[in-house]
Amino acid sequence: MKRGIMYLRFWLFAMYFTAFWILYGCFVFIKKLVIENNFDIQPLYLILGMLLLLYQSKKEYKKVKN
Description:
Blueprint: H1 3-34, H2 42-65
């Protein structure tokens, strides 16, 4: 396997992985806010951190793809 293809797949996996955790953080935040009637800041930290990682992995994916 070529090195470029390996890195391309890694960054693609990283983007899907972070996107999953962003969706999960949104689910937990809405669940706690609506169902449990409780505001919790921890899911917002998760969403923000994963958004930063998603941005970085998307940038690296585009760099490897070109």
